[in-house]
Each structure stands twice: as structure tokens, then as C-alpha cells.
Amino acid sequence: MQEAFIKLEQGRKTVMQYEAEFTALAKYAHLIPTAEEKCYRFLEGLNRELKHPLVPLRIQEFSKLKWARLIEIDLTASVSRYEVGSIYDVSMSRDEPSRER
Prior knowledge:
globular, Retrotransposon gag domain-containing protein
């Protein structure tokens, strides 16, 4: 269990899935003596696009790491808007012949 905990990274998991696995493994690993170290270890396992905005906040309470989930939601929404916008832009920029008679 300790090795699984040490190597744990978010990878393709959602933040909620990663947090659930992290919490479950942390109970058995007994490697995190303080709340600060728990936050640090959680942040280290997050994907880069989620970790970078959180590091400057110096979060020391695990409950405040909910910000990772909010960032994930925002990034997902941004990607969705971008994809929809790209499809819209492409369809509007086609050179279609006029159908006027």
C-alpha cells in the first residue's frame, strides 16, 4: 500500500477519483504526519494543468484543495466552448456558392 501511495498520480482520473484513491491509500500508508505534507503530496500527484494554478496558493488544509475540482470544471468547460467555437467558425467560413436565382 505504501508504494502505491507514493507512486499515486492523477493521470486520466478526475480530481474526485484521484482524491478518493488518495484518501483511501493515505489511511493505510501512514506516511503523512501533517496536514501540510498531505496537501503537498496531493498537489504533487495532480496533473500539471491543475497543479500550477494551485501551488502559489500554498494550501495547508486538505479541504481547501476543492479548488482543484473547480479548476478542472473550468478547464473542461473552456475546452468544450473552444471545440464548439471551432466547429462553428469552420462551418461559417466555408465558401459555399450562393443559391440565389
